[in-house]
């Protein structure tokens, strides 16, 4: 299973580079590509201990004392809630791997190993980062049988996850078509997952990066620019407070003396355009 999470010299960057490079190469060859971003609900909390130990023994080959160590690590764990100094009764934990631990991410990756074999059987490309799985397939618009192959793969993935106590969320799973626009228009932009139709999105957020259908990253650049511009604008407005123009009658309103506006960030929406032109003349960064 190709996994970029919890590995040395791997990160979200390597996962994104791999998938983006494959999609761009396919587009250069006149192909359209379909990307499916699978969404799992509380993946780390639903790992079944019995299945995990069976997988460690029969798939990974861990036996004897080493297997007993893992069994001891997972067993006899309890959890409780503590509210206003009052603890609840203890509840035994039979599912999930300890998050924030060293072994937790490794055990989750091993638990997910069979998923890679299922995807490979259908000839679908994939790349994972922790519990985020990216499936993608490149094809010519007339090769509709490959679209059926992707739907069959999704069906098998859903079945495997159900049998392994993992919850695939069709409502949050996203689907997108990439490639030259004339070719995209010739393709039926819809697949189904668990009876739910997934329509191709114009943009999706993948591991913190916004993808658009042309892989131009214009949407992502605009978002990052806007996010970076807001703190700058706040600092600009804070500097405006020391301006001699503060004695202007425009700023004599009792509202500006409110304790709520004591922070240097609060003047941003109330300063008149006279003092803060960038904030009031445009929503995004200056071009």
TrEMBL record:
* Listed InterPro entries: DNA/RNA_pol_sf (IPR043502), RT_dom (IPR000477)
Q: Coiled coil where?
A: none
- The chain positions of domain Reverse transcriptase read 1-198
**Which Pfam families does the UniProt record give?**
RVT_1
Which PROSITE patterns does the annotation name? RT_POL (PS50878)
Task: Show the SUPFAM superfamilies listed in the entry.
Answer: DNA/RNA polymerases
Transmembrane region positions?
A: none
Q: Which domain of life is it from?
A: Eukaryota
This chain belongs to the protein called Reverse transcriptase domain-containing protein
Native source species: Takifugu rubripes (Japanese pufferfish)
Classification of source organism? Eukaryota, Metazoa, Chordata, Craniata, Vertebrata
């Amino acid at each position: 299973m190709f996994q970029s999470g919890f590995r040395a010299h791997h990160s979200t960057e390597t996962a994104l580079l791999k998938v983006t490079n494959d999609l761009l190469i396919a587009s250069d060859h006149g192909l359209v590509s379909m990307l499916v971003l699978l969404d799992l609900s509380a993946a780390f909390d639903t790992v079944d201990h019995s299945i995990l130990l069976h997988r460690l023994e029969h798939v990974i080959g861990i036996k004897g004392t080493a297997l007993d160590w893992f069994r001891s690590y997972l067993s006899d764990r309890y959890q409780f809630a503590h509210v206003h100094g009052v603890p609840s009764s203890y509840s035994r934990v039979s599912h999930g791997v300890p998050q924030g631990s060293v072994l937790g991410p490794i055990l989750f990756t091993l638990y997910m190993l069979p998923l890679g074999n299922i995807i490979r059987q259908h000839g679908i490309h994939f790349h994972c980062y922790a519990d985020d799985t990216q499936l993608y397939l490149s094809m010519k618009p007339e090769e509709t049988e490959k679209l059926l192959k992707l739907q069959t793969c999704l069906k098998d993935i859903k079945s495997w996850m159900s049998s392994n106590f993992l919850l695939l969320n069709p409502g949050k799973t996203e689907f997108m078509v990439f490639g030259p626009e004339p070719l995209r228009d010739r393709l039926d932009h819809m697949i189904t997952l668990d009876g739910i139709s997934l329509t191709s999105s114009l943009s999706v957020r993948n591991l913190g990066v916004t993808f658009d259908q042309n892989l131009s990253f214009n949407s992502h650049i605009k978002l990052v620019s806007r996010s970076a511009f807001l703190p700058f604008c706040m600092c600009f407005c804070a500097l405006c407070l020391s301006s001699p123009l503060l004695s202007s009658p425009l700023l004599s309103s009792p509202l500006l003396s409110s304790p709520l506006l004591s922070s240097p960030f609060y003047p941003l929406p109330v300063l008149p355009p006279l003092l803060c032109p960038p904030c009031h003349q445009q929503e995004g960064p200056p071009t």
